[in-house]
Amino acid sequence: MLSETRRMLSGRIALGTLVAGAALSLTACGPLPLLPPALSGDRAEEEPAPEPTEDEETDPAEETDPVEDEDPEPEEESVDPEDTDVFALRVGDCLNEMESNTDETISEVPMIDCEEPHDFEVYHAGDLDGDDVFPGEDEVADLAAEECHGAFEDFVGADYESSSLDFTTLFPTEEGWENGNDREAVCLILDPAGQTSGTLEDARF
Question: Rounded to whole angstroms, how far apart are CA atoms 70 and 74?
Answer without folding.
Answer: 12
